[in-house]
Design goal:
By secondary structure, the chain is an alpha/beta fold. It has two domains: 4-164, Rossmann fold, CATH 3.40.50; 188-306, TPP-binding domain (Rossmann fold). The chain has helices at residues 11-23, 37-44, 63-77, 88-101, 207-216, 225-229, 261-264, 296-306, and strands at 4-7, 29-34, 49-53, 81-85, 104-109, 111-115, 118-125, 130-134, 141-145, 161-164, 193-197, 220-223, 251-255, 272-277, 290-293. Helix 5 (207-216) packs parallel to helix 8. The longest helix has 15 residues, at 63-77. The radius of gyration is 22 Å and the shape is elongated. 41% of the residues are buried. The chain binds flavin-adenine dinucleotide. Flavin-adenine dinucleotide (FAD) is lined by residues 127, 198-200, 224-227, 239-244, 256-258, 260, 262-263, 276-279, 282, 295-297.
């Protein structure tokens, strides 16, 4: 392998990608930044070479142009493998970049290892029922890794920051304004304590008691998919699972959730799991450290009372 280039517009995720590349004992790891000198300095502080692109014609919203720029930086860096974050923008970029680089591409990767010059990538398969190990059988590779699979790299040295020129056409996209997303901007992946509710919750009105409990425990409320997509009681930002977020909290309290695999893949790495379900045979109990067989509404009321 000639070398690795990491890129994410998100500072924290870019640092996670450095750890991912280092975990493969890669000899040449470099990073690309686009119009983000603060990120360039943070990445250089991990000891790697950084190629900083500063070009006002490049807009993050124009993923095609970003793909063209990252591809050119990969060529300059002599990198045959590009690591991206498998967030929404990273996944779109992965496909476009692979096309520009004529590379093979894997997204939603949850673990990496090297075996005889091959990068083995683990991904959930068959709706999350199993984990498939796959590799890209092509010289050039684009691999998008799920956020928080790796710790962010710490400052361990002083890498160089070199400004590089790229040739891109002026974007056909014009950004009129930036607005933060209306309503919910919760980051359940960063929460140390999560209280996840499922379809066992009787009504939207019962959410206020769950939110009160989450506040008392210093945590966030999350949910199974149908609570957000079918019932619309919580935003889709709060879904745990295959089509939602993969979370690793210290404590996960799972209430009224049956334990379908599409949900459990998103929470199985939690340190301590408490399952509250009225059905003593609920499959969620198989992954729980503590099982409470009871009506979740009674448990929430009692916990709120005990916690004052
Ligand atoms: C491609 C695909 C992707 C998917 N992705 C996701 C995903 O990312 N996340 C996700 O969550 N799902 C996902 N699903 C859906 C998933 O298969 C399940 O349908 C879903 O997780 C079930 O949600 P639930 O556990 O809340 O509801 P249910 O399966 O209906 O379970 C409700 C549970 O509540 C219990 N209960 C009822 N009343 C009470 C009470 N009063 N007190 C305590 N317990 C009670 C019941 O015993 C039951 O176990 C996906 C499905 C597909 C096909």
């Amino acid at each position: 392998m000639a070398g690795f280039l990491v890129f994410s517009e998100n500072n924290d995720l870019a640092l996670e990608l450095v750890t991912a590349a280092n975990s493969l004992k890669a000899v040449a790891v470099s990073a690309c930044t686009i119009n983000n000198n603060e990120q360039a300095q943070a990445l250089a502080a991990t000891g790697i070479q950084v190629y900083a692109v500063n070009n006002e014609d490049l807009l993050m919203a124009d993923v095609g142009a970003i793909a063209a720029a990252v591809s050119q930086v990969a060529d300059k860096a002599g990198a045959d493998t590009v690591l991206l974050a498998s967030n929404r923008r990273g996944k779109e970029l992965a496909g476009r970049l692979a096309q520009v680089m004529d590379a093979g591409c894997l997204t939603d990767v949850t673990a990496l290892s090297i075996e005889v010059e091959r990068i083995l990538c683990q991904r959930n398969a068959l709706g999350g029922a199993t984990v498939a190990t796959q590799y890209i059988d092509a010289g050039r590779k684009v691999i998008a890794i799920r956020p928080r699979t790796f710790e962010a790299a710490a400052g361990a040295g002083t890498g160089a920051v070199d400004e590089v020129e790229v040739e891109v056409k002026k974007s056909g996209v014009t950004v009129l304004e930036f607005k933060s997303r209306a309503g919910d901007s919760v980051d359940i992946e960063a929460a140390e304590v999560l209280i996840a509710v499922g379809q066992g919750l009787n009504s939207k009105d019962d959410l206020s008691a769950v939110e009160e409990l989450a506040k008392k425990l210093g945590g966030e409320v999350a949910c199974s998919k149908p609570v957000a997509t079918d019932k619309g009681w919580l935003s889709e930002e709060r879904i745990i699972g295959l089509s939602g977020k993969k979370c690793k909290p210290e404590l996960a309290i799972l209430m009224g959730i049956s334990g379908q695999v599409q949900f459990t893949v998103g929470i199985r790495d939690a340190k301590t799991i408490v399952a509250i379900n009225s059905d003593e045979n609920a499959s969620i109990n198989q992954m729980a450290d503590y099982i409470i067989t009871a009506d979740l509404h009674d448990v929430v009321a009692e916990m709120n009372q005990k916690l004052g």
